[in-house]
Amino acid sequence: MVKSATKYETVIGLEVHVQLQTQSKMFCSCRSDYQAADANTRVCPVCLGLPGTLPVINRKAVEYTIMTGLALNCRIPGFSKFDRKNYPYPDLMKGYQISQYDLPLAVEGFLELDAPEGTMDSERRRIGITRVHLEEDVAKLQHHLSDPSDSYSLVDVNRSGVPLMEVVSEPDMRSPEEAREYLMTLHSILQYLGVSTGNMQDGSFRCDANISIRPEGSEEFGTRSEVKNMNSFRSVFQALQFEVDRQRKVVEGGGKVVQETRGWVEERSVTVSQRSKEQAHDYRYFPEPDLPPLSIDGAWVEEIRGRLPELAAQRRERFVRQFAIPDYDAALLTNSKGMADFFEETVVKKQSSGADSAPAPQEFAKSASNWILGDLSRLMNLDNGDVAGLKVTPAHLAELIDLVEDGSISVTMAKTVLEDAFSSGDSPVKIVKEKGYTQISDSDSVKPAVAEAIAANPKAVADYMGGKDTATRFLVGQVMKITKGQAKPELVNQLVVSMLDDLKENA
Known about the structure:
A hairpin with a 7-residue loop joins strand 7 (about 140-145) and strand 8. The protein has three domains: about 10-305, no CATH class; about 310-435, no CATH class; about 445-505, Arc Repressor Mutant, subunit A, CATH 1.10.10.410. The strands form four sheets. The protein has an eight-stranded mixed beta sheet with strand order 5-6-9-1-10-11-12-13. The protein has a three-stranded antiparallel beta sheet with strand order 4-3-14, with no helix packed on it. A two-stranded antiparallel sheet has the order 2-15. The protein is built from 16 helices and 15 strands. The chain is of the alpha+beta class. The radius of gyration is 29 Å and the shape is elongated. It has helices at about 45-50, 60-70, 175-195, 235-250, 300-305, 310-325, 325-335, 335-355, 360-380, 395-405, 410-425, 430-435, 445-455, 460-465, 470-480, 490-505; strands spanning about 10-20, 80, 85, 95-100, 105-115, 125-135, 140-145, 150-155, 165-170, 205-215, 225-230, 260-265, 270-275, 285, 295. Helix 8 (about 335-355) packs across helix 10 (about 395-405).
């Protein structure tokens, strides 16, 4: 078969469901922190969907949704209402979901993305936000399929009724990479707002993707597929990549893409068909008769706007301006609110200490950035943890940088001290004192280690004699190993060069 020469453009729109971090559920007073609770212990007649019960709107959930809409540059209409969305799934306790349809809380917004790395485009990409609306989450099905002769499913109602905010984008994204960037930027905004934990593993941040392809230059949308069951940024990216390739093969093979819902199977890295895609009319939306329409006071909206925190983009610009760190460092630090908080508190701890031996504030800020983005991030990744659970505090990191700057310990030894502090929570000063991690700056104490390294590495010595000055770096590293990182690197380098020059003169 001759491959088609037609070039295709990818069209992606995302629907992101966000569990809001309120104390109670959307329409009842049950606690919303259901994740660690025993099954069906965070329930009441309202979220169980029992006859005769009446929902009551959670004001804080409405406030969080308006706050998110404002952060996404949305217009907040003065009138909104809830609707009944009907569909017969076993995880839906009432047989319908209370949601919003034609009159949501926020509309007509946008989210800006940085230009892709490695491109000459300095313009930020603007992704339209169709709406941000509020609804209730559904119950959770637990399938027990290990024994084919006794397979069954259970329903845990704890999640039913938890406030769920949906952010619906326009179909403005043109690649899986751009969709991933959009998701990460949105996730960061929600973190900074404090409206959600944003934890994808426990379902607090869930994404459905609508994706289609069309010939380049065409303005008409192709038939789209909706992809579900993606629980990480990586899986969203991989699922969209798979769908682009699958749809292209279908079209080039003479077939037609079918509008359907597909599920991402992580183990096989494929999407599989689940069901035909429902349309709005399939849900039979109608206004929720048990809830009054919402009249949104403009003064309340402006009061919420005034409480919007500094978001990642603003904080990144401030870090560059205030601490003189590179754009790259500032972008990485501010991607996570917790990481940005840790960095800023570290620098503030140093500035407030007023130590005479303190390095210039800009130098200290760069050192703090290097340690956080380097060794501290490496330790967190190995531990599968995050900043929130760290035993190392900003004060500890400031202390560690001081110990390096005043010559008490070498950078190599500081890495070991950081590892100890990471696991124990002890201060670097205490660790250095108890374990004797002091830097050796006495040349008479270091010379034996230098002589040992030179004697044990004749090839490096021969390289130096032959004019390769870089051989000294290897020998310095060997001395640092012998002294367990405690020798002062500058002193070691001087002694290595001095001893090698003596050997060269006497050769």
